[in-house]
Structures are given as structure tokens and as C-alpha cells.
Amino acid sequence: MKKLLCLTAASMIAASSISVAHAEPGGCIKYGAAGAVGGHVANHHGVLGAMGGCVTGMYVRHRYRKEARAKAALYDQEHPGAKGTYAEKATAYDVEHSTQPGKMNSDTPSTPAAPAQAQPANGAQL
Q1: Mean pLDDT to the nearest integer, 16-30
Q2: By C-alpha distance, which of 100, 91, 98 is closest to 72?
Q3: Which residues lie below 8 Å from residue 68, measured CB to CB, with a gap of 6+?
């Protein structure tokens, strides 16, 4: 029994160390599991929650990949002939433009806002 337990533990550790971490948001499995737990808590609707979570996860991942492809296209315009996957180019675009993943524009404006022109008080045209 000890041998089986040790073998199982060793295989679980090996399997968890082999997987590669992705920077993408979770898809159907991750959101579906969260939805199943939420549905189970909310009056035993685990299957309905899992389906809703799965749909939400697929939508979130689709939106993330769509934005990554748009960032890769912008990177290709700035750097013609650049090689790499769209995920690598989107990361490079984020690094160059100081944006957060999931946001196309940075929070800080790159140029200061121009002051508004003062209008005459009497309504006369200049």
C-alpha cells in the first residue's frame, strides 16, 4: 500500500511540474468548475452553473486572443518582418507601449492634453 501511495504521489508531482503555464485567462474547464460550484451552492444547479461558466470562459479567452491578434498586427506594422507567434508579438507590444494585458491603451496619456481656447465673454467672434 505504501508503494502504491508513493508511486501515485511521485507521478502527481511529475505531472504537475511538466505542464507549461500560459498567460491566457482560463477557458471552459476553469470557469466551468467555478460555475459548477456556484450553481451547486445556489439551490443545487451545478450542471447549469457549469454550462454557464464554460460559455463565459470560452468568451473571455476568445476576447483575450482577439486582442492579442490586434496587438500583434500593430507590432507587425511597427516592425515589418518580425518573426514569432501572435502571443509573443502581443507581449512585445505590451512591453514597448507599457500596456496591461487585457487593455489596448495605457492608463497614462502619451501627450499632455491641450488647454481649451478661451471664448470671449460677450460672444463676439475673433
Answers
A1: 69
A2: 91
A3: 86, 87, 90
